Amino acid sequence: MKFKSFLLCLALAAVSCGQAPRNNSEIPVYLDDAQPIEARVEDAFSRMTLDEKIAIVHAQSKFSSPGVPRLGIPEVWCTDGPHGIRAEVLWDEWDQAGWTNDSITAFPALSGLAATWDRDLSRLYGKNIGEEARYRNKTVLLGPGVNIYRFPLNGRNFEYMGEDPYLAGEMVVPYVEGVQSNGVAVCVKHYALNNSEVNRHVANTIVDDRTLYEIYLPAFKAAVQKGHAWSVMAAYNLYNGEHLCSNEVLLDKILRGEWGFDGVVISDWGGVHNTLQTARHGVDLEYGSWTDGLVMGKTNAYDIYYLAAPYREAIEKGEIGTDELDARVKRILRMIFRTSMDRTRPFGSQTSPEHYAAARKIGAESIVLLKNDGGLLPMSNPRKIVVVGENAVKMMTVGGGSSSLKAKLEVSPLDGIKARYPDAEVVWERGYVGDVGGEYNGVSTGQDLRESRNAATLIADAVKAAQGADYVIFIGGLNKADRQDSEGLDRVQYGLPYGQDAVIEALAAATGKLVVVNISGNAVAMPWKDKVPAIVQDWYLGTQAGHSLADVLSGDVNPSGHLPFTIPVSYADNPVQTERQYPGILRDGTIDGMPVMDMEYTEGIYVGYRWYDLHGGVLFPFGHGLSYTTFEFGEPRLSKNSMQENGTLTVTVPVKNTGAVKGAEVVQLYIADAEASVDRPVKELKGFAKIMLEPGQKADVSFTIDKDALSYFDAEKHAWTAEKGVFKAMVGASAQDIRGTAEFELK
Ligand code: BGC
What we know:
Layout: H1 3-16, H2 37-46, H3 50-56, E1 64-65, E2 76-80, H4 110-116, H5 119-135, E3 140-142, H6 165-180, E4 185-186, E5 188-191, E6 203-206, H7 209-216, H8 218-225, E7 231-234, E8 238-239, E9 242-243, H9 248-258, E10 264-267, H10 276-281, H11 309-316, H12 323-338, H13 353-366, E11 368-372, E12 384-388, H14 413-420, E13 425-429, E14 439-440, E15 443-444, H15 455-466, E16 471-477, H16 500-510, E17 514-519, E18 534-538, H17 545-554, E19 567-568, E20 585-591, E21 594-600, H18 609-615, E22 618-620, E23 631-633, E24 637-638, E25 642-643, E26 649-657, E27 663-673, E28 684-693, E29 698-705, E30 712-714, E31 719-721, E32 725-734, E33 737-746
Beta-D-glucopyranose binds next to loops.
């Protein structure tokens, strides 16, 4: 039987069985998916009681809030985020619930994703992690994070997308779209100005408007306006003397007002500290509140959350009307209709071969080859490889705070190398003792990393093992322990911890075949840089970490990652130097019953390369990344020499693979305002493209720019402004490797 006639028979059979086509007029509008979402929202809303409205705006458990059970409107279930789906936790505890079916794929940390400079990989990431969230029936994925990398001590930089607002803004949009294509909402976090962890509940950021709009907001704005994010998480800290969760300027004026955000603002867990101000201007949905305002929580205290009984009382006493509540309820309903009440959404999947393949690919493409003297890498025909360092074996998916995971599989770097070279002798030596912990909220790595040798013996043993090796690969860096790359606290030193510098120095003295692999989500000091022929920046790459690294070390994948942040020579080179800038200064008085630390962003717009371009002190620049091949850039050409304010202009640069292997280059476009009446950075990233070329192949890379690429934020006019005059289009392979410049005029 032909397929069409088969379908016809099926349809006739259905009718004859009495299955009449659904009559839409017989079901309520809110349940009718043929109706527009707004009509469904209004209809559902019109059926709700005050109690139901109050119930829907605050949590009922650690990670869920009620729907409207009487109407069959489902609960909202949130999950961390942002690198994988968090293990299920107990109803009112952080501890894992002990399910046996909640082990997931751990995807690379977002700092790594940003290092790919590849929008397609960001979409792939979003789609895949969204499938896992969907499979686990989550409404909201708590991520991605796009707080700007302000300085290298922030414990959560590994969860974010680097120092540049344009890069973060471009990379976040496909992630959002990918996740939401599963009918799962993202929750873009932590809005905003949460750029360090120490004092995160009491730090009041003081920042000028220009810096706010140019540096700290663009990635959020892109997620909302271009990515159409369905939810945003309000951060813990304060701005303008108000906690972010009740912040009138950032939530009402900018997010909902200027950007037209129609989704849900969710509080960071325990970020709400008052009822009235929050009810007027704050979050839509309150989660994780501590009932003493800061650290302590009563068990199952959900009914006394700020947006629970106290909210109802305030309405009853007439202290506040119901307009704000109604708007909040509608926003939450809208999110539910976009997600769990979208009957067309896919079903998702978990730990599929596709997810593992995606994690491996994204991981490999994120790894940055910082230095490769004499072409030491890729390894060629190694017979003996000596691997040194704790991070070669340490499981990194457990720890680090809320992004901690229960991964079904985590391939360590050592195992990845062994798997790639089954016929080689691969020896591991520890080299140093870092963090021997391996437990977070009841999820344990099961690794026993205890060690009895002292530091001198560990170094001596590593040096001894290195004798006669074809390659010595030191794999160290930071980890997910407190005061490393971890939530809640920041790093306490810029240098590598645990005496690793001494191990590297000793190995460098013993062999000319040393490769240092630094695994971290932050820049670290590399005082041994000139003594080590090859340096690789690796990230927390999750389930496939070891395979991704081996792919690059072996040359199976030609490295194409580029730094999403600058690595300064020393801490003294970075823009955040004074106590006033960080960790801030205690001010008199309290806000929401809590002390306040004023933290002033006196460096202004000079963050990342914008700072280093003026002050120097760069070890490896923003945008830097080598390949096993080489690329030649031709002169940039412009489509015309001048552009009108509302026009566009195209910059085209020919790029050629001049080496012997296929490889990808990240071509970067920076714009400089050569005739500005205000202070402007030396240059700013306004375009990038990743292009794959065969040996000898040449291709044109084009960027089209408009007024946005030329503008600064004029705080007085409260408007983006592009000044007439001469601009430079600078094309290069990093912020310090500009290969060609072309000038044009804005008329
Ligand atoms: C973190 C958020 C996280 C939330 C829920 C908070 O402490 O700041 O990023 O999503 O906890 O785990």
